[in-house]
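pasting for the record
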Amino acid sequence: MTITLVTGANKGIGFETARQLLALGHTVYIGARDAERGEKAAADLGARFVQLDVTDDASVSRALEAIAAEEGRLDVLVNNAGVLANEALDGPAALRAFDVNAVGIVRVTEAALPLLRESANPVVVTVSSSMGSFGVVTDPERPEYAMPLALYAASKSAATMLTVQYAKAHPGIRFNALEPGTTATDMTAAFGIGRPVSDSAEVVVRLATIGADGPTGTLQDENGVLPW
């Protein structure tokens, strides 16, 4: 049985990723900040729930301790929790964007590492963005070129760099970041754009289910490795 934790999984891409991984036979833990919403999502899917706020060290520690007590290991970690951070550009907004989109990855990954080391096939997937790719956002032919999301883009660059550095530091674990595709979620509702979450979740699932010979230290979308 593959033991999987998906953060920010009470809705959107995280919820659909959990659904698809459950269908593949994973034991999935739904990590969510709001206990009521998280418990409902887990019940709807037939998953397990852990209260997990990626901005709170104590919450993260309790969540991973609970998984350790119940399972003794973690095979797959999906760092999915994130914010769009499209409010006014100021210090508090920047701190929040980086706290969720980058520092949260550090909190969860560091807490999960001891359990990942107990797995025979440990995998970490971080939902990043092509908006964090220098190669993409400086290409006038790409739609990201004209999107003014400074804090989101900068924090997702940090998320991808963390992925690369974790891959180098822990060669026994495969770490990859991804661009899931423009998806119709709460985050994109204001733009009125996006494809079904099921399509984007498939990109996450593909990297979450790679074998021991799979890639590590990459940023990918559904078509392969992205420049960044």
